Amino acid sequence: MVKYKNGTGLLGHIGGDAILGDGGKVEPFLMPNGLLGLSPDSATLFPNLPKGTMVLA
C-alpha cells in the first residue's frame, strides 16, 4: 500500500491501494479518465486507485 502525503510526482500512482489524506489535509487527485476528486482530511484508504492517477499535495 502506498501513501501520498507529498503527492505522486509526474509519473502518477503505480496502481492499486493507496492512502490519501494522511497529511491531515484534503488532497486533490486526477484519475487517468479525467475524473477529479478530493480526499478527506484524514488518512483514507482508496482501494484499487488506477495506475497513473495524479495525487496533488
Give me a quick take on this structure:
The protein is 0% helix and 37% strand.
Describe the model.
Helices cover 0% and strands 37% of the residues. It is built from no helices and 6 strands. Strands 1-2-5 form a 3-stranded mixed sheet, with no helix packed on it. A 3-stranded antiparallel sheet has the order 4-3-6, with no helix packed on it. The protein is globular, with a radius of gyration of 10 Å.
Radius of gyration: 10 Å
The largest sheet, given as strand count, sense and whether it forms a barrel, is: 3 strands, mixed
Mean pLDDT across all amino acids: 86
The low-confidence runs, each spanning 5 or more residues with pLDDT under 50, are: none
Beta-strand proportion: 35-45%
Indicate the percent of residues in helices.
under 10%
Task: Using the alpha-carbon principal axes, give the shape.
Answer: globular
Class per helix and strand makeup: mainly beta
Oligomer: single chain
Q: How far is the N terminus from the C terminus?
A: 18 Å
The number of strands is 6
N to C succession of SSEs = EEEEEE
Count every helix, treating DSSP H or I runs of 4 or more residues as helices: 0
Q: Strand order, main sheet: write it out.
A: 1-2-5
Secondary-structure map:
Layout: E1 2-3, E2 16-20, E3 28-30, E4 36-38, E5 44-49, E6 54-55
Parallel strand pairs: 1-2
Antiparallel strand pairs: 2-5, 3-4, 3-6
Give the tags.
mainly beta, 57 residues, 3-stranded mixed β-sheet, 0% helix, single chain, 3-stranded antiparallel β-sheet
